[in-house]
Amino acid sequence: MAEPTAAHSRAPGLTEDDAGPLLTVRGVEKSFSGVHALRGVDLTLARGSIHALVGENGAGKSTLIKVLTGVHAADAGEVRFRGQPVAFTRPADAQDAGISTVYQEINLVPLLTVAQNIYLGREPRRRGLVDTRGLNRQAAELVQRLGIEVDVRAKLGSLGLGVQQMVALARAVSIDARVVIMDEPTSSLEVREVETLFGVARTLAASGVGLLFVSHRMEELWTLCDTVTVLRDGRVVHTGPMAALDRVGLVSLMLGREASDVRAGGTTDFGDSHAHGTAPLLSVSGVQVPNRLRGVALTARPGEVVGLGGLLGSGRSETLKAIYGDLHTTAADVEIDGRRVRTGSVSRSLEAGIALLSEDRKAEGIIPDLSVRDNIALAVMPRLSRLGIISDSKVDALVEVFMRRLQIKASSPRQKVRELSGGNQQKVLIARWLATEPKVFLLDEPTRGIDVGAKREVQGLIDELAEQGLAVVLVSSEMDELVEGSDRIVVLHDGEVSGELTGDQLTSAHLLTALAGGTPSDTSTSHPSTSDTGTAAGAGRSDRG
Amino acid sequence: MAEHTATAIESAAPPPAEETPDRRRGPDGAWFRRNGVYVGLVVLVLVNLVITPHFASTGSLRLQLVQVAPIIVVSLGMAMVIGTGGIDLSVGAVMALTAAVIPLYIGYGTLGAIGAGLLAGVLAGALSGSVIARVGVQPIIATLAVMVGGRGLANIMGGQIKSIRDPGFRELGSGKLLGIPWVVLIAIVVIVAVALLMTRTTYGRQLVAIGGNARAAALAGLPVKRVLTTVYVVSALLAALAGVLLVARNQASDPTRLGQLVELTAITAVVVGGTPLTGGQVRVFGTVAGALLMQLITFTLVAHNITDSVAQMVQAVIVVLAVYATVGTRMRRRSRA
């Protein structure tokens, strides 16, 4: 592909003998126990380029980064670094060679000073001892050159996250990294910190370093990056100049959907929209979670399925957890039937009639060693007991009802839940929450990772629950599921409600536009075709704009 | 055993028919972990019936049971703590604390002294429980602190050996009901109580749920902090009870020595009994069998003039085998998943 034409392309003073691209990835494949994470990925990182790597969950970004940095070995394909084929087996090898990674969670030592962190393991020495003065002087020069305002003698842990990220960058520079991979560096930063970080990144790029930038904050991509590579399902679906893509185009590439190409229903098992009352059953407003949610508000009426749309990192799961009282909020107003619920306590939310089906079935859902029966009865145990003694007959009756109603397939109610299939485990969890007789059911990715049959059953069940008068809030990364399952979709963007789709707007096309941050009515923009899932460079796309 | 095959708490295994065929080459690690302790116990009893003279005599059996009873009581508390994924290193110190308190309150009568001793234990347990559940200190650290501090406090309160000349304590220590020593009867009551607690109550179910997946339990609205706090109180209460039993049997209080290394004996009994250290299961009868097995091993070796030190080494081997069986099972499970 062509060299990026961005302003910061190549530093004049650069005296590299190897002229080609810094990093070339060709046909890299990687699978984990039969599941393909990368299927022939190509990527070219040019000198002085800031290259965006985007994709939804499971697209393969992390796997690619791990292959590049020696955490995983590629199954097939080739990685060339400065023209030479490389196959790092340890992260330290990659770092020594000049590929440095700055992670979202900082992997430095909080109890050491900034200077000590920057030169950790490579401290300047005098007579065998660490030359502290020289260390501090070098570090001070370095941070000044990069435009970071920080006292190098301060303990890293005492500084803000943004500064810590920049120290991590400074460390990358100090070890003479030629490629810096930034994995979601901004997700916990304040606006001002982000700007400084970008300044540092540009300085680096200007000196000829190639940066690979992963972020879920879309607007940042256009501010910072000159080139973009979009991954989906382990494949590169697009590579090209950042400026040649608009937001809707990028989102449709990420999701693999196109505004003009909307299948009309039929892929999910949802029925028609539900009749619902007028007064909201659930009313949420002003939900604030530092760095996550900025005043989210939504309502749901009885019998209504409200979809919660948004890209990765937009705050969908956080919103559900905040409503449920599981996430600490600095401000939140949650009302059920007009009565205010004190937030911040799961048991109070449960009492008030809120239930949350968490997206992470294994970590936050099942108790693997307990039986199907005990898993179902878990949340309502006190209700099935007298003076702390469990009534077996009551538990059996309850469990029997739900196992039959949800068609949970287990050899017996006493079978351990760990032995069930994903779909049946999910049904056990749904049963657990339905047993609490909720008025409001918050569903976070209810059909993720379950087989097609179970998926349809769960979707049908959501419909049925709404018909019975529950208010359902549905989070799903699958557009069809969200569009067809919801009566209304509230769209989140960067921790805020950015739009709402109702009635005729409930189409994939409108959702796509809304997800990209446009207004629901604005769907006339043209989009790059997603049918060419090859690795065609973006040259052909630039003439589109 | 009927009642505990009925619930997940005693880990009712899926019948062999449900195992995938290629993994059914006789008893595997999982089977061994669940039942190895019973097999070991039966084998050892049979061996002793043959090789140890007078093994089956009433006197010999009674002595064995009297000796193991306090261990069983402590181990059951330990099993509950381990069921939550924690550990309680303070049980020996709690026993010493109880022993130190008893002489101070013997003037209030037998029951008064016992009450004071148990209360001291409860307070120590409440301390470690709150630090673990509310502050979030790791169980091993919190109970280590109570272990060291509690033993120190016990020494300050009741330095040297004091003999207890109280008829109530004498009856408790050496009396019998229908030929069964009180000490053994009390242990049986504790076994039944803990078994019922674990299988029949919401508390027991919540305890293993928290041990199995604390995050999921919290999201299901379970009172995680309360359960975690109280489990250390229960463990300490049972340790204090064991302290009372030992004081009664010795007719003396010796805070410096009483309960030394009991925590390790108890952990051994629990692990050998098949309760995984990772939490999520409490095997009540397995723990009892584990305590009996370890006791019987020591007895067998000592009865045949093999020193105590060798007995300890044999115990060590058994612990390693038990843990190996547990770990082996986990790994096999993971590879299947």
Structural write-up:
The complex is a heterodimer of chains A (545) and B (337). In chain A, 30% of the residues lie in helices and 23% in strands. Chain A is α/β, with parallel strands linked by helices. Chain A is built from 17 helices and 24 strands. Mean pLDDT of chain A is 81; it is low at 1-17, 259-266 and 519-545. In chain A, the strands form six sheets. Chain A has a six-stranded mixed sheet with strand order 6-9-10-3-11-12, with helices on both faces. In chain A, strands 18-21-22-15-23-24 form a six-stranded mixed sheet, sandwiched between helices. Chain B has a domain at 60-260. Chain B contains 14 helices and four strands. In chain B, strands 1-4 form a two-stranded antiparallel sheet. In chain B, strands 2-3 form a two-stranded antiparallel ribbon. In chain B, a hairpin with a 2-residue loop joins β2 and β3. In chain B, α3 (58-83) runs parallel beside α8 and α13 runs antiparallel to α14. Chain B is globular, with a radius of gyration of 20 Å. The chains are: A alpha/beta (545), B mainly alpha (337). The A-B interface holds A 324, 326, 346-347, 349-350, 356, 358, 363-371, 373-374, 377-379, 381-382, 385, 388-390, 411, 414-416, 418-419, 432 and B 6-8, 11-12, 14, 18, 200-203, 205-206, 208-209, 212-213, 215-223, 280-281, 333.
What labels would you give this structure?
heterodimer, A: 545 residues, Rossmann fold, 6-stranded mixed beta sheet, 24 strands, elongated, disordered C terminus, B: mainly alpha, two-stranded antiparallel ribbon, 14 helices, 4 strands, disordered N terminus
Main sheet summary of chain A: 6 strands, mixed
Estimate percent helicity of chain B: over 70%
H/E series of chain B? HHHHHHEHEEHHHHEHHH
CA-based shape of chain A: elongated
- SS-derived structural category of chain A: alpha/beta
How much of the polypeptide of chain B forms β-strand, as a percent range? under 5%
Assembly state (oligomeric): heterodimer
Report the span from N to C terminus of chain B: 30 Å
Which structural class best describes the helix and strand composition of chain B? mainly alpha
Number of strands of chain B: 4
What is the class of the largest domain in chain A in the CATH system? Alpha Beta
Tell me the strand percentage band of chain A.
15-25%
Largest inter-chain contact set: A-B, 35 and 29 residues
> Uncertain segments of chain A of ≥5 residues (pLDDT<50)?
1-17, 259-266, 519-545
3D shape of chain B: globular
